[in-house]
Amino acid sequence: MNCKNCQTSLEESDDYCSHCGGRVIRNRLTLKSLFHHINETFFNFDNKLLRTFLGLFTKPEDVIVGYIDGTRKKYVDVVAYFALAITLSGLQLFVLSRLDIDMSSAWDTSTEVGKQQQAFTEAIYKYTSDYQSLVMMMYIPFYALLAKLIFRKYKKFNYTELLVVFLYTQAHISIASVLLLPLIGLIDFISFTGYGMLVLLFQFGYFVYALKRVYGLTVMQIFLRTLLFLLIMLLLFVVATVIMAAVMYQMGMFDKLKDTA
User: Do 40 and 168 lie in a common domain?
Assistant: First the structure.
Protein backbone atom coordinates (compact mmCIF):
# COMPACT_ATOMS: atom_id res chain seq x y z
CA MET A 1 0.00 0.00 0.00
CA ASN A 2 1.29 3.45 -0.94
CA CYS A 3 0.45 6.93 0.34
CA LYS A 4 -1.99 8.58 -2.08
CA ASN A 5 -0.31 11.96 -1.51
CA CYS A 6 3.41 11.20 -1.92
CA GLN A 7 3.44 7.52 -2.98
CA THR A 8 5.59 6.47 0.01
CA SER A 9 5.28 2.78 0.88
CA LEU A 10 3.07 2.18 3.95
CA GLU A 11 2.29 -0.68 6.28
CA GLU A 12 -1.30 -1.94 6.39
CA SER A 13 -1.56 -0.84 10.03
CA ASP A 14 -0.42 2.76 9.36
CA ASP A 15 -3.00 5.50 9.93
CA TYR A 16 -0.70 8.33 8.79
CA CYS A 17 2.12 8.59 6.27
CA SER A 18 5.54 8.75 7.95
CA HIS A 19 6.85 10.93 5.10
CA CYS A 20 4.22 13.62 4.48
CA GLY A 21 1.93 13.16 7.49
CA GLY A 22 -1.14 12.58 5.33
CA ARG A 23 -3.99 10.55 6.81
CA VAL A 24 -4.60 7.12 5.32
CA ILE A 25 -8.14 6.98 3.87
CA ARG A 26 -9.51 3.45 3.67
CA ASN A 27 -13.24 4.03 3.19
CA ARG A 28 -15.15 5.58 0.31
CA LEU A 29 -16.38 9.15 0.60
CA THR A 30 -19.87 9.49 2.11
CA LEU A 31 -21.98 12.47 3.14
CA LYS A 32 -21.24 11.68 6.77
CA SER A 33 -17.48 11.61 6.22
CA LEU A 34 -17.66 14.75 4.06
CA PHE A 35 -19.50 16.75 6.74
CA HIS A 36 -17.11 15.37 9.35
CA HIS A 37 -14.17 16.63 7.30
CA ILE A 38 -15.77 20.08 6.85
CA ASN A 39 -16.47 20.31 10.58
CA GLU A 40 -12.95 19.20 11.44
CA THR A 41 -11.38 21.63 8.98
CA PHE A 42 -13.40 24.79 9.61
CA PHE A 43 -15.33 24.52 12.88
CA ASN A 44 -13.19 22.42 15.18
CA PHE A 45 -11.59 24.64 17.85
CA ASP A 46 -8.27 22.92 17.33
CA ASN A 47 -8.16 23.37 13.55
CA LYS A 48 -5.31 25.28 11.95
CA LEU A 49 -7.36 28.17 10.61
CA LEU A 50 -9.01 29.07 13.90
CA ARG A 51 -5.74 28.50 15.76
CA THR A 52 -3.94 30.82 13.35
CA PHE A 53 -6.63 33.51 13.52
CA LEU A 54 -6.71 33.53 17.32
CA GLY A 55 -2.93 33.18 17.57
CA LEU A 56 -2.36 36.29 15.47
CA PHE A 57 -4.40 38.21 18.05
CA THR A 58 -2.97 36.70 21.23
CA LYS A 59 0.58 35.69 20.26
CA PRO A 60 1.47 37.01 16.79
CA GLU A 61 5.14 36.31 17.42
CA ASP A 62 4.39 32.61 17.89
CA VAL A 63 2.67 32.41 14.50
CA ILE A 64 4.92 34.74 12.48
CA VAL A 65 8.35 34.17 14.01
CA GLY A 66 7.52 30.48 14.32
CA TYR A 67 6.90 30.29 10.58
CA ILE A 68 10.12 32.18 9.85
CA ASP A 69 12.05 29.82 12.14
CA GLY A 70 10.65 26.74 10.40
CA THR A 71 7.34 25.85 12.08
CA ARG A 72 5.03 24.73 9.25
CA LYS A 73 2.45 22.31 10.66
CA LYS A 74 1.05 24.20 13.65
CA TYR A 75 -0.50 27.15 11.79
CA VAL A 76 -1.85 27.95 8.32
CA ASP A 77 1.11 28.87 6.14
CA VAL A 78 1.51 32.50 5.12
CA VAL A 79 0.65 32.08 1.42
CA ALA A 80 -2.58 30.18 2.13
CA TYR A 81 -3.61 32.72 4.80
CA PHE A 82 -2.98 35.63 2.43
CA ALA A 83 -4.88 33.86 -0.36
CA LEU A 84 -7.82 33.39 2.02
CA ALA A 85 -7.71 37.11 2.87
CA ILE A 86 -7.79 38.08 -0.81
CA THR A 87 -10.71 35.71 -1.41
CA LEU A 88 -12.74 37.06 1.51
CA SER A 89 -11.95 40.67 0.59
CA GLY A 90 -13.03 40.00 -2.98
CA LEU A 91 -16.28 38.49 -1.72
CA GLN A 92 -16.77 41.50 0.53
CA LEU A 93 -16.33 43.93 -2.37
CA PHE A 94 -18.69 41.85 -4.52
CA VAL A 95 -21.39 42.12 -1.85
CA LEU A 96 -20.77 45.84 -1.35
CA SER A 97 -20.97 46.45 -5.10
CA ARG A 98 -24.50 45.01 -5.04
CA LEU A 99 -25.57 47.35 -2.25
CA ASP A 100 -26.60 50.97 -2.56
CA ILE A 101 -23.83 52.53 -0.49
CA ASP A 102 -24.30 56.22 0.16
CA MET A 103 -21.03 58.04 0.70
CA SER A 104 -22.46 61.53 0.26
CA SER A 105 -22.30 62.18 3.99
CA ALA A 106 -18.53 62.11 3.87
CA TRP A 107 -18.29 65.64 2.44
CA ASP A 108 -20.41 68.77 2.17
CA THR A 109 -21.50 68.48 -1.47
CA SER A 110 -23.25 71.85 -1.43
CA THR A 111 -19.90 73.51 -2.25
CA GLU A 112 -17.63 73.02 -5.25
CA VAL A 113 -14.75 71.94 -3.02
CA GLY A 114 -16.99 69.40 -1.31
CA LYS A 115 -18.11 68.02 -4.68
CA GLN A 116 -14.50 67.59 -5.78
CA GLN A 117 -13.58 65.90 -2.51
CA GLN A 118 -16.59 63.60 -2.85
CA ALA A 119 -15.65 62.77 -6.44
CA PHE A 120 -12.10 61.99 -5.34
CA THR A 121 -13.36 59.72 -2.54
CA GLU A 122 -15.63 57.82 -4.91
CA ALA A 123 -12.82 57.50 -7.48
CA ILE A 124 -10.49 56.04 -4.85
CA TYR A 125 -13.20 53.59 -3.75
CA LYS A 126 -13.85 52.51 -7.35
CA TYR A 127 -10.14 52.08 -8.07
CA THR A 128 -9.47 50.01 -4.95
CA SER A 129 -12.57 47.91 -5.66
CA ASP A 130 -11.50 47.15 -9.23
CA TYR A 131 -7.89 46.38 -8.35
CA GLN A 132 -8.30 45.19 -4.76
CA SER A 133 -6.06 42.11 -5.02
CA LEU A 134 -3.31 44.04 -6.77
CA VAL A 135 -3.48 46.86 -4.21
CA MET A 136 -3.21 44.38 -1.32
CA MET A 137 -0.12 42.76 -2.83
CA MET A 138 1.52 46.10 -3.63
CA TYR A 139 1.29 47.19 0.00
CA ILE A 140 3.41 44.29 1.26
CA PRO A 141 6.85 45.12 -0.25
CA PHE A 142 6.30 48.77 0.66
CA TYR A 143 5.52 47.96 4.30
CA ALA A 144 8.52 45.61 4.47
CA LEU A 145 10.84 48.27 3.06
CA LEU A 146 9.48 50.86 5.48
CA ALA A 147 9.95 48.49 8.43
CA LYS A 148 13.49 47.72 7.28
CA LEU A 149 14.20 51.45 7.41
CA ILE A 150 12.47 52.17 10.73
CA PHE A 151 13.79 49.09 12.53
CA ARG A 152 17.28 49.14 10.96
CA LYS A 153 18.81 49.24 14.46
CA TYR A 154 17.38 45.77 15.11
CA LYS A 155 18.92 43.10 12.87
CA LYS A 156 16.30 40.47 13.68
CA PHE A 157 14.72 40.10 10.22
CA ASN A 158 15.98 40.41 6.67
CA TYR A 159 13.79 41.85 3.91
CA THR A 160 12.30 38.51 2.85
CA GLU A 161 11.38 37.69 6.45
CA LEU A 162 9.72 41.09 6.76
CA LEU A 163 7.63 40.21 3.71
CA VAL A 164 6.37 37.21 5.70
CA VAL A 165 5.63 39.46 8.69
CA PHE A 166 3.46 41.78 6.62
CA LEU A 167 1.85 39.05 4.55
CA TYR A 168 0.54 37.58 7.79
CA THR A 169 -0.44 40.90 9.40
CA GLN A 170 -2.06 42.40 6.28
CA ALA A 171 -3.98 39.17 5.67
CA HIS A 172 -5.12 39.09 9.30
CA ILE A 173 -6.33 42.68 9.16
CA SER A 174 -8.27 41.98 5.96
CA ILE A 175 -9.94 38.87 7.39
CA ALA A 176 -10.84 40.64 10.64
CA SER A 177 -12.19 43.62 8.65
CA VAL A 178 -14.54 41.34 6.74
CA LEU A 179 -15.85 40.01 10.05
CA LEU A 180 -16.37 43.59 11.28
CA LEU A 181 -18.47 44.54 8.24
CA PRO A 182 -21.83 43.42 9.73
CA LEU A 183 -21.42 46.25 12.28
CA ILE A 184 -22.71 48.61 9.58
CA GLY A 185 -26.05 46.83 9.55
CA LEU A 186 -26.24 46.04 13.26
CA ILE A 187 -25.30 49.45 14.63
CA ASP A 188 -27.20 52.36 13.12
CA PHE A 189 -24.71 55.10 13.94
CA ILE A 190 -21.82 53.39 12.11
CA SER A 191 -21.86 54.54 8.47
CA PHE A 192 -19.80 53.11 5.63
CA THR A 193 -17.34 55.98 6.09
CA GLY A 194 -17.21 55.28 9.82
CA TYR A 195 -16.52 51.62 9.10
CA GLY A 196 -13.62 52.66 6.86
CA MET A 197 -12.16 54.80 9.63
CA LEU A 198 -12.63 51.97 12.12
CA VAL A 199 -10.71 49.61 9.84
CA LEU A 200 -7.88 52.13 9.40
CA LEU A 201 -7.56 52.56 13.17
CA PHE A 202 -7.62 48.80 13.65
CA GLN A 203 -4.99 48.34 10.93
CA PHE A 204 -2.64 50.88 12.46
CA GLY A 205 -3.14 49.58 16.00
CA TYR A 206 -2.61 45.98 14.98
CA PHE A 207 0.55 46.76 13.02
CA VAL A 208 2.01 48.51 16.08
CA TYR A 209 0.97 45.64 18.36
CA ALA A 210 2.27 42.90 16.05
CA LEU A 211 5.62 44.62 15.38
CA LYS A 212 6.12 45.18 19.10
CA ARG A 213 5.59 41.46 19.71
CA VAL A 214 7.65 40.07 16.83
CA TYR A 215 10.57 42.41 17.56
CA GLY A 216 10.25 42.02 21.33
CA LEU A 217 10.29 45.78 21.97
CA THR A 218 9.36 47.79 25.03
CA VAL A 219 6.47 50.26 25.00
CA MET A 220 8.87 53.21 24.72
CA GLN A 221 10.82 51.61 21.87
CA ILE A 222 7.74 50.94 19.79
CA PHE A 223 6.33 54.38 20.64
CA LEU A 224 9.40 56.16 19.23
CA ARG A 225 9.36 54.08 16.07
CA THR A 226 5.63 54.67 15.68
CA LEU A 227 6.26 58.42 15.70
CA LEU A 228 8.90 57.99 13.01
CA PHE A 229 6.51 55.82 11.02
CA LEU A 230 3.74 58.44 11.24
CA LEU A 231 6.08 61.17 10.02
CA ILE A 232 7.23 59.12 7.04
CA MET A 233 3.69 58.02 6.21
CA LEU A 234 2.43 61.60 6.35
CA LEU A 235 5.03 62.71 3.83
CA LEU A 236 4.41 59.72 1.59
CA PHE A 237 0.64 60.15 1.81
CA VAL A 238 0.87 63.73 0.58
CA VAL A 239 3.11 62.68 -2.31
CA ALA A 240 0.93 59.65 -3.19
CA THR A 241 -2.27 61.71 -3.06
CA VAL A 242 -0.87 64.30 -5.44
CA ILE A 243 0.38 61.61 -7.85
CA MET A 244 -2.89 59.65 -7.72
CA ALA A 245 -4.98 62.77 -8.25
CA ALA A 246 -2.81 63.73 -11.23
CA VAL A 247 -3.10 60.25 -12.76
CA MET A 248 -6.88 60.13 -12.31
CA TYR A 249 -7.18 63.63 -13.77
CA GLN A 250 -5.19 62.58 -16.83
CA MET A 251 -7.37 59.47 -17.21
CA GLY A 252 -10.50 61.61 -17.04
CA MET A 253 -11.92 59.74 -14.07
CA PHE A 254 -13.23 62.91 -12.42
CA ASP A 255 -15.10 63.90 -15.59
CA LYS A 256 -16.70 60.46 -15.78
CA LEU A 257 -17.87 60.73 -12.19
CA LYS A 258 -19.36 64.18 -12.84
CA ASP A 259 -21.19 62.88 -15.91
CA THR A 260 -22.73 60.02 -13.94
CA ALA A 261 -23.63 62.20 -10.94
Answer: no
